[in-house]
Design goal:
Elements: E1 4-6, H1 15-44, H2 48-77, H3 79-103, H4 108-136, H5 140-168, H6 171-191, H7 205-220, H8 223-255, H9 257-280, E2 281-283, H10 286-294, H11 299-305, H12 310-338, H13 344-356, H14 359-373, H15 375-395, H16 397-400
Antiparallel strand pairs: 1-2
Helix pairs in contact: 1-2, 1-4, 1-5, 1-6, 2-3, 2-4, 2-8, 2-13, 2-14, 3-4, 3-6, 4-12, 4-13, 5-6, 5-9, 5-12, 7-13, 8-9, 8-11, 8-13, 8-14, 8-15, 9-12, 10-12, 10-15, 11-12, 11-15, 14-15
Length: 419
């Protein structure tokens, strides 16, 4: 039986956490608006499901390819510096796409190119997210829960707002807002006052290889971590990858463009609930509890594949969102409290790279495979794989038996040998 305890009410809303939360919440709202805008903009430009998959994959591919270097750079130069630079780059990419959409000149190559640059910037940004939370919050799980609720709020408000703006003004407006949110994020990060963090002084290609090897060693030594990532690679190809390219098309075709926005908002509403629960409930075995909750995520592709009526579609997305949020908080907290801070950015880079590496494959293949066998069969398979993957997570002993850490790991990873 999973031992569940309730957390305390310690002070969390410090100046630094409030600034970080504000920047993340605004940027997440912009990101929450973007999937609907991408799907509708690419289709309106005449590029179809395959075009949507290509644009999404062009973001994900450089994110996977470069994120290991993002982890090294974050440990070496500082996570905040890398995150601010990434935000500035994304202000530029989203502004370029906004201008193209507003002026009506929207070639597929431009969408793919700007998406790729934004994906590379995300690779420089994302590793720092994990190491930033322990620096600004004493209660890591509660902080992750609050941030997940912010993400959920973005999913709740973003898609509906995006769908409305696309109908009223066009997708270019959504991209312009997205650019502005990254500017706000950069300013909030710039205003943070953080404690000094020891960073490696090594330079050159040899030291880069050393840092990558050290991060890989720390990642490989944790069987609970790489076991989850192996499952996530399969999920990326067969579950996460096809959902937006095929799901957006099926929902829009059968229920209209607004229905897709409402489905994403329902998922966001469920994510709010899951994040609130994860802020308070502290399982003794967090990954086991998260995997048990994650079964509900399979309802999302299942409801789309069977062409469920709108009320059932929204309910399935709400349950799936709650399941995903609870798992996400358990996973993020486990990483941030089990991995020493001096290698956390690099380990996070390996974890994120593995988590998303299958998604662009699934996104690119979704359109062609869906055209051959039908999108209903592809998403039905996604639901089956989702259930099987959750069962496997619970069967694997390192995942099932991982205990909750009481505080973040702060010890050096290199311990001197006894004399």
């Amino acid at each position: 039986m999973i031992d569940v305890t309730i957390g305390d009410n310690g002070r969390m809303w410090t100046r630094e956490f409030s600034l970080y939360f504000a920047g993340r919440a605004v940027a997440l709202l912009g990101d929450g608006m973007l999937p609907v805008a991408v799907a509708l903009a690419v289709r309106d430009a005449g590029h179809g499901d395959t075009g949507v998959g290509l644009v999404l994959a062009s973001w994900m591919t450089p994110a996977v390819a470069l994120i290991l270097f993002g982890g090294v750079f974050a440990d070496r130069f500082g996570a905040r510096r890398m995150m601010i630079g990434a935000d500035v780059v994304r202000v530029a990419t989203q502004a370029v796409v906004a201008y193209a959409l507003i002026t009506g000149n929207v070639p597929l190559w431009l969408l793919v190119a700007m998406s790729a640059v934004a994906g590379g910037a995300a690779a420089m940004f994302q590793p720092g997210v994990a190491s930033m939370v322990p620096l600004i919050a004493a209660d890591v799980q509660r902080a992750n829960g609050v941030l997940r609720v912010a993400d959920a709020g973005a999913q709740l408000l973003g898609p509906a707002l995006s769908a409305t703006l696309v109908v009223l003004t066009g997708p270019g407006t959504v991209y312009a807002i997205n650019a502005a949110t990254f500017a706000v994020s950069a300013l909030c990060l710039l205003a943070l006052r953080l404690p000094p963090v020891a960073r490696a002084a090594r330079q050159g290609i040899a030291s880069m290889r050393h840092d990558l090897r050290e991060g890989w060693h720390e990642f490989r030594s944790r069987s609970w971590m790489w076991s989850v990532i192996l499952v996530w690679v399969v999920f990326g190809i067969l579950v996460f990858g096809p959902i937006i390219p095929l799901g957006s098309g099926m929902i829009t075709e059968h229920l209209g463009e607004n229905a897709y926005g409402w489905a994403m908002s329902a998922m966001g509403g469920g994510t709010v609930l899951g994040g609130l629960v994860a802020m308070r409930v502290r399982p003794d075995r967090p990954l086991a509890a998260g995997a048990a909750a994650l079964f509900g995520f399979a309802l999302i592709p299942l409801s789309i594949s069977v062409q469920a009526p709108l009320p059932l579609l929204l309910a399935a997305h709400a349950v799936g969102g709650a399941s995903w949020a609870f798992w996400s908080v358990m996973w993020a907290t486990s990483i941030q409290t089990q991995v020493p801070r001096d290698v956390l950015n690099r380990v996070t880079a390996y974890e994120v790279a593995g988590s998303i590496m299958g998604i662009p494959i699934g996104q690119v293949l979704a359109g062609p495979v869906g055209g051959l066998v039908g999108p209903e069969l592809v998403l039905g398979t996604s639901a089956v794989v989702g259930v099987a993957g959750c069962a496997l997570l619970l069967l694997l002993r390192p995942i099932r038996n991982l205990r909750r850490a009481t505080s973040p790991a702060t010890l050096p990873t290199q311990v001197p040998a006894p004399a």
